[in-house]
Specification:
Length: about 240
Amino acid sequence: MKLPLLTAAVAIALGLASTSANAALVLDQTATVAVGVPTDAQIRTCNNFTGEACGGSAGGTVELGQLSATTAGEVQFEYLGNEAGYTNDLRVWFGGVEVVFSTAGRPDTFSTPGLFSDWYAVGAGALSFGVCTSNGLSDGDSDGAGGPDRAWGRCVWNHEADSIADQWSLGGYDGYRSIGFRQFDEYSWLLFFDDSGASNDDDYDDLIARIHFRPAQVPEPATLGLLGLGLLGLGAARRRRA
């Protein structure tokens, strides 16, 4: 194996390793037309979401926007809890609307998390999910399909900027209904839903979930590094024999 070819092979391996390491979820805050985003909204935090009982309200911040994958992969939703008078459903929209889980019949608490959805295949771009509520002002269709006027019922859809903007300003309120996010780690984000209780209380604790992401299967960085070293050793051995 000639050295230039060997160098190229190692460079490609390292490049793939870098791509794999950077595959994650990002929040695109430029894709929505909502205004007056409450970056300092007060939310409920539950002992850093370790699964322990929630000891009460604590200050925190959420960010609004569209949560997107930087590469193809799979997502899974984990229910963490709720404190809401309405029934709130987390739904996915992959060829049809499917309820992942609902607060109906579940305790009004954060002390019993751990309900997990299936893994759903996704491509790069805004993730197709939303949260719908049972009460409050409605903006048309409630099933998430959307009509010719792009009405959204009582649902906020992450992949539809119009939905985010319309629910935010519904009824002339500033922040009537919305989903907020906070990054948990490289491969997961926390989702906070505010269902418009008390018109716009902005507590963001009416449904809290964690979104897990895993990239499409690619060689692990360590495996690629070993492959590169192996190619390098093979090339060096051949050069010595020559």
